[in-house]
Amino acid sequence: MNVTMKAPLAILISGRGSNMAALIEAARAEDCPYAVALVASNNPDADGLRIARNAGIATFAHSHKGLEREDFDAIIDRALRKAGVRYVALAGYMRIMSDAFVRGWAGRMLNIHPSLLPKYKGLDTHRRAIEAGDAEGGCSVHLVTPTLDDGEVIAQASIAIVPGDTAETLAARVLKAEHQLYPAALAAYVRGHVGR
To answer: Which of 9, 113, 177, 186 could form a disulfide with 157 if both were Cys (CB 3.0 to 4.6 A apart)?
Structure first.
């Protein structure tokens, strides 16, 4: 696949950017249907921004502090559209977005969540899975809708919960699965929607 034919993708991050790095690495493959056009963050000090810049990716950062949700989302939206973005991948983006922003990217914005949705929406997913006595945890790639972690699930990976697991040990194993699942699920989704 010619790089000029790849769908432009923005990745939104708030922190270290480990899933972002996995998406950037996957995008280097010739047959990957997306190219990372922009990495944007609500945290100008996010470690992931440095990783993106070192990989030759354009970055944009603007603090959300002191701004209404809608006003901040409008700033991000303008940056995405200026970069010619067609798809958006949330990768550790710790912001609940306005309904208007989500509607503007409906069907073109995905997220990775560290649970087997519909279980354990929101935070503390690994601790909640262990405390519930679940046999497995995992991660889900889903479409983003105005309701938190409620969009259509595109792909999932299950990870066994073993005796003695803590939220931290389970999180470490799930994160490895996320790094494999997210690039593959995003690529499959983009391939299925190119030209729509």
So the answer is: 177
Q: What is the CATH number of the domain that holds 55?
A: 3.40.50.170
113 is catalytic: yes
Q: What is the pTM of this model?
A: 0.95
CA pair distance 180, 195, nearest whole angstrom: 26
**Active-site choice (64, 113, 126, 142):** 113
- Domain total in the chain: 1
Unique residue bearing structure tokens 């389970």: 170
**Cα distances (Å, whole numbers) of residue 125 to 81, 153, 194:** 33, 16, 33
For the stretch 52-83, pLDDT in tens is 999 999 999 999 999 999 999 999 999 999 99
Q: List, in sequence order, every residue forming a beta bridge with 160; answer none if it has no partner.
A: 136
